[in-house]
Amino acid sequence: MKRFAKGNKVLAGILVLVFLMLAAVPDSYAQRRRRPSKTKHIAVGTAVGAVGGALIGGRKGALIGAGAGAGTGYMVYRHKKRKAARRY
User: Fold this and answer.
1) Helix (H), strand (E) at residue 47
2) Using an 8 Å Cβ cutoff, are 48 and 67 in contact?
3) What is the pLDDT of residue 5?
4) DSSP code of 24?
5) I need a surface site. Which of 28, 43, 63, 68 has the fewest CB within 10 A?
6) Phi, psi for 28 (deg, rounded to 5)
7) What is the pLDDT of residue 67?
8) 41: closest CA among 9, 6, 79, 12?
9) Which residues are CB-neighbours of 69 under 8 A, at least 6 positions away?
10) Do 44 and 73 contact (CB within 8 A), yes or no?
11) What region, left, alpha or beta, does residue 58 occupy, with left being phi > 0 and alpha being psi -120 to 50 degrees?
């Protein structure tokens, strides 16, 4: 049983060293500017719309909600994209 405990301590020590090295990376390596993702906005809007529509109107409501959610997701993406373009 002692052999496994010693191995776990070594593994924990290695993990601590890796995390310390990763934490020491300067901020200059961080990505500063990111543009919004169209796919992510539309997918999230579609999922939320489909769930909301299914809760309200069943299968037909889910289809209508998914369409409305996809349109809303695209509108949010377009708004964020224009906002980001004005800032830079």
Assistant:
1) helix 38-87
2) no
3) 65
4) T
5) 28
6) -65, -15
7) 92
8) 79
9) 45, 46, 47, 48, 49, 50, 52, 53
10) yes
11) left
Domain boundaries defined on the chain: 2-87
| Residue recorded with tokens 């998914």 | 66
Q: Which pLDDT tens digits describe the chain residue by residue (88 residues)?
A: 455 566 677 778 778 877 777 676 666 555 666 666 888 888 888 888 898 888 888 888 889 999 999 998 899 888 888 876 665 5
State the maximum Cα–Cα separation within the chain, in Å, rounded to a whole number.
Answer: 63
Structure tokens at 23: 């934490």
Question: Which residue bears the tokens 């529509």?
Answer: 53
Output the pLDDT for position 2.
54
